[in-house]
Amino acid sequence: YCIFVNNGLLRKNEFESVLDQYKHMGLNVKGVDASERFLNKLVGLSDPEQKRKAIGNEFINVFDDEAHLIEDVKWLAQGTIYPDVIESVSVTGGPSATIKSHHNVGGLPDFMKLKIVEPLRMIFKDEVRRVGKSMEIDAELLGRHPFPGPGLAIRILGDITAEKVRILQEVDFIFIDGLKRWNLYDKVWQAGAMLLPVNSVGVMGDERTYEKVVALRAVESTDGMTADWVDLPYKFLQEISNKIINGVKGVNRVVYDISSKPPATIEWE
């Protein structure tokens, strides 16, 4: 049994599109829409680590609920990869700091009578893709950009509301769709949009606006441990900026992130 959880923080239409892709892989995948549960848990939270932990805890609760619907469940398989482990804990007990918590690192609570199996835990993303290629998994599926487990919650800086999720889903859709149309998607390792906790003054027609600022981010990398920002064409950025500002209600300014990792992480939270 495979469970794909909609935490209400996925990309636009992603829940349905991912389930559709799985249909052709011969997997027994059940989609669980727990959007409301996750959004309720995030009410009033603005600290990145608190948001990550609230989402991680609710994932466990959802999986536990689903496990009780299936007989004789003993194992929970997770797609944890090595960068998740490195950023979450000191692997060797040494001095490396926790950069950010990952919901799939740290084990399960005692009330879940399951053991964890993590076949990808000690390999990097590029190695995961090579494994997938050797298994003849569809190239389009293998080439999907990495997407954080907490989803858009860590791309919305500050507190989370359904309206902010809507805004960012629309912005992200325009950006990713544009990368594909311009044949740039496969040249970028990871891309996404961030909703910033600031408003800026703008002009729409003859009216003054005071609306949200979004940041676009696109990086090139091999394993996600280091990354450089991608020098996207100015014409592309101009087109995407215009589409976002004219098409997404609540946004009146678009900026492009030109920070590399390190010192900046790929995600903003």
Describe the structure.
The protein folds into 2 domains: 142 residues, Rossmann fold, CATH 3.40.50; 95 residues, GMP Synthetase, Chain A, domain 3. Helix content is 34%, strand content 20%. The protein contains 8 helices and 8 strands; from the N terminus they run βαβααβαβαααβββαβ. The strands form 3 sheets. Strands 5, 6, 7 and 8 form a 4-stranded mixed β-sheet that branches. The chain has a two-stranded parallel sheet with strand order 1-2. Helix 7 runs antiparallel to helix 8. The protein is globular. The mean pLDDT is 90.
Short description:
With about 270 residues, the protein is α/β, with parallel strands linked by helices. The protein has two domains: about 140 residues, HUPs (Rossmann fold, 3-Layer(aba) Sandwich), CATH 3.40.50.620; about 100 residues, GMP Synthetase, Chain A, domain 3 (2-Layer Sandwich), CATH 3.30.300. It contains eight helices and eight strands, in the order E-H-E-H-H-E-H-E-H-H-H-E-E-E-H-E.
Secondary structure layout plus pairing:
Elements (H helix, E strand, L loop, with lengths): L1 E5 L7 H10 L5 E5 L1 H7 L6 H20 L7 E3 L4 H7 L26 E3 L7 H10 L4 H4 L19 H20 L8 E15 L2 E14 L7 E2 L4 H14 L3 E6 L13
Parallel strand pairs: 1-2, 3-4, 6-8
Antiparallel strand pairs: 5-6, 6-7
